[in-house]
């Protein structure tokens, strides 16, 4: 059988590198496109020797011409620290990047997947969030470049579907964590683990009563690939995440316990528009894809702790390509 040629934008990022690896395991040819804004060469180093893997340094805000059968569009910084660092570029990446990838898919009649986000629900007024909920998003706040950029990308995907009959797949990904996150990622799981491993204060924003539901990256990748392989008429949007809800304070306690750390919690002001509660209703994914996450928080955190321990042992910056002024910790409002 002819191998499929698959394009992964943002393939050198945290989720993207796991997705590239899974697609290679499934005997595909993978073209990874990334501009290394938050992605890292370390993430794809283990794939570089694979003759079915190709890396292209390219910014998705510019048009791209390659011959592929499928496109996974993941290019976009996802950590609030990173996407707020250059908010105009974040909107550009979501909107122009999607437009360019949709045009490419249209010219090739290729299936295309969009990594959308639970942020399209904003600070949700319903709980748990299902796909019929239209969201509660501030259009002019510090998170808007990401939230509205991703919402506009969803609009573009559904307009290409209606107007041109393109085969689209739109997934709303909820908080995902695991090995492959960079040291300066700035999201809560990596911050807490790195702080705990170094006996530094655990930085809790607000009083820590806000909740999230954390999905281990291997589970997410299985969901993404099952979605691409699912029936052609299933466009989504579909929630992909782990419905195990936990408060940020409890997450801090779990990380301290797991690492045996001497760290104490310190409290910073809550960043503006920080969602108070978040948990996916995943019935649609369960019914249509037969998918649900299988990795519990404790197991996933153990793997992630082991990964960061190994990075710390190496005693090198996790990614020499990173912008020096983006910092891992501290409040970001
Ligand atoms: P990440 O920041 O680790 O990866 C994003 C990748 O995109 C990086 O490799 C970065 O260099 C690349 N990139 C950014 N702008 C680009 C551009 N203009 N051109 C080419 N490449 C560019 O983030 P992640 O956690 O791996 O997220 C991947 C995708 O999944 C994103 O689209 C994100 O919005 C979505 N998502 C992630 C989560 C999560 O919890 N990790 C949750 C919801 C949605
Ligand atoms: N958070 C925190 N301390 C940190 C980083 C994040 O308390 O060092 C909080 C943040 O305010 C939010 C939650 O943890 O309420 C998840 O933040 P993250 O940046 O990981 O993702 P978000 O879901 O906000 O995009």
Any key phrases for this structure?
333 residues, alpha/beta, Rossmann fold, seven-stranded parallel sheet, 13 strands, 37% helix, 16% strand, binds nicotinamide-adenine-dinucleotide, binds uridine-5'-diphosphate
Folded structure, characterized:
With 333 residues, the chain is of the alpha/beta class. It has a domain at 5-175 and 216-240: Rossmann fold (3-Layer(aba) Sandwich). Helix content is 37%, strand content 16%. The strands form 4 sheets. Strands 3-2-1-4-5-6-11 form a 7-stranded parallel sheet, with helices on both faces. Strands 7-10 form a two-stranded parallel ribbon. Helix 2 links the parallel strand 2 (29-34) and strand 3. Helix 1 (14-25) crosses helix 7 and helix 4 (87-108) runs parallel beside helix 5 (144-164). It is globular, with a radius of gyration of 19 Å. Residues 316-333 have low confidence and may be disordered. Nicotinamide-adenine-dinucleotide binds next to helix 1, helix 4 and strand 5.
Helix content: 25-40%
Proportion in β-strands: 15-25%
Q: Enumerate the spans where pLDDT stays under 50 for 5 or more consecutive residues.
A: 316-333
Sheet bearing the most strands, described? 7 strands, parallel
Strand order of the largest sheet: 3-2-1-4-5-6-11
Q: How many strand segments?
A: 13
Task: Briefly summarize what is shown.
With 333 residues, the protein is of the alpha/beta class.
């Amino acid at each position: 059988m002819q191998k499929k040629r698959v394009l992964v934008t943002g393939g050198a990022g945290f989720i993207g590198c796991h997705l590239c690896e899974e697609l290679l395991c499934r005997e595909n040819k993978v073209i990874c496109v990334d501009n290394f804004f938050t992605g890292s060469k370390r993430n794809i180093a283990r794939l570089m020797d694979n003759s079915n893997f190709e890396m292209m340094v390219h910014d998705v805000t510019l048009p791209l011409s390659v011959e592929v059968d499928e496109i996974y569009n993941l290019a976009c910084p996802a950590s609030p620290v990173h996407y707020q660092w250059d908010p105009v570029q974040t909107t550009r990446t979501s909107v122009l990047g999607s437009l360019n990838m949709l045009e490419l898919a249209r010219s090739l009649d290729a299936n295309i997947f969009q990594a959308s986000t639970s942020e399209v629900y904003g600070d949700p007024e319903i709980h748990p969030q299902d796909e019929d909920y239209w969201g509660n998003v501030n259009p002019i706040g510090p998170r808007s470049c990401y939230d509205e950029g991703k919402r506009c990308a969803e609009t573009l995907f559904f307009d290409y579907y209606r107007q041109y009959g393109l085969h689209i797949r739109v997934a709303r990904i909820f908080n995902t964590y695991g090995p492959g996150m960079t040291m300066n990622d700035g999201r809560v799981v990596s911050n807490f683990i790195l702080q705990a491993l170094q006996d530094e204060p655990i930085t809790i924003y607000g009083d820590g009563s806000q909740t999230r539901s954390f999905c281990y990256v291997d589970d997410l990748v299985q969901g993404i690939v099952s979605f691409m392989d699912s029936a052609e008429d299933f466009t989504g949007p579909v929630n992909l995440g782990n419905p195990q809800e936990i408060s940020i304070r409890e997450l801090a306690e779990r990380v301290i316990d797991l690492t045996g750390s001497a760290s104490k919690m310190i409290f910073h002001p809550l960043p503006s528009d920080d969602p108070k509660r978040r948990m996916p209703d995943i019935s649609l994914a369960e019914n249509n894809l037969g998918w649900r996450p299988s990795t519990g928080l404790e197991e996933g955190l153990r793997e992630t702790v082991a990964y960061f321990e190994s990075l710390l042992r190496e005693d090198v910056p996790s990614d020499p390509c990173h912008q020096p002024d983006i910092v891992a910790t501290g409040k970001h409002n």
